[in-house]
Amino acid sequence: MNERMKLFAPLVAALFVVVLSAPAFAGSKFVNSEDAEEKDEPQAFLKDYDKLVKGSEADWVYFAEGFKAHAYKTVSIKPFHITGKGSEVKYAAESGPDYYDTWIERSDLGWKVVKGGGDLSIEGNIVNAWEPSGGARFWGGWLANPGACQEVIGRNSKGAIVFQIRHKSRGSTVPDAVENGIEDILKTLEKGK
Q1: How far is the C-alpha of 1 from the C-alpha of 3, rounded, in Å?
Q2: Which one, 27, 51, 60, 111, has least CB within 10 Å?
Q3: Is the CB of residue 182 less than 8 Å from the CB of residue 100?
Q4: How many CB atoms lie within 10 A of CB 6?
Q5: pLDDT (tens digit, 0 to 9) for every residue of the chain, 193 residues total?
Q6: Residue 124 gets which letter from DSSP?
């Protein structure tokens, strides 16, 4: 009996790993995630939400086959769109493009920001932004800090989408949350995952 157990133990262990990891693989796509079910975060800006997968620094990413961020030399930043509701969303959208300019210069991407006609263009969108009440901030810690959910589309000079990213971030203020998110998005672009 003990000899049979030794023969089947690796098979049982492998089967156990597959069964336990199945939900993780199913949940690695945005459309199967809890984030996709958020009622106050519309999915109206990105072109293909079903292509988004779990990212490294940013929450959800899609990269076109062969995308290499370092292949681009110039980038133009377009004004942010707004698909969310509320005054915080508008406030967040106003600060986004300027933060891209700043963080692109600080990044290792090697891009130069130009007003128009770049090798790459970035379009941003604020899906949601929130500012918790004073009591919630006091009792809730970091999770009760202001936050923002933003989406980004990158297009090459021919207009083809080369990446899409959706990311939530927190900060000490709504603009700080947007800036923190942009920093994470640029780190993701540097890594390409």
Answers
A1: 5
A2: 27
A3: yes
A4: 8
A5: 556 545 544 544 444 433 343 334 444 899 999 999 988 899 999 999 999 999 989 999 999 999 999 999 999 999 999 998 888 898 889 888 999 999 999 999 999 999 989 999 999 999 999 988 665 555 555 557 899 999 999 999 999 999 999 999 999 999 999 999 999 999 999 998 8
A6: E
* Cα–Cα–Cα angle for 105, 109, 111, rounded to 5 degrees: 60
Kindly report the pTM of this predicted structure: 0.81
33-191 to CATH, choices 2.40.30, 3.90.550, 3.40.50, 3.30.2310: 3.40.50
* CA 153 vs CA 61, 76, 159, 181: distances in Å: 10, 12, 11, 14
Query: For the chain, where are the E strands, in sequence order?
Result: 53-54, 60-63, 74-77, 81-82, 112-113, 120-130, 147-156, 161-170
In the numeric block, the tokens 């519309």 are attached to 42
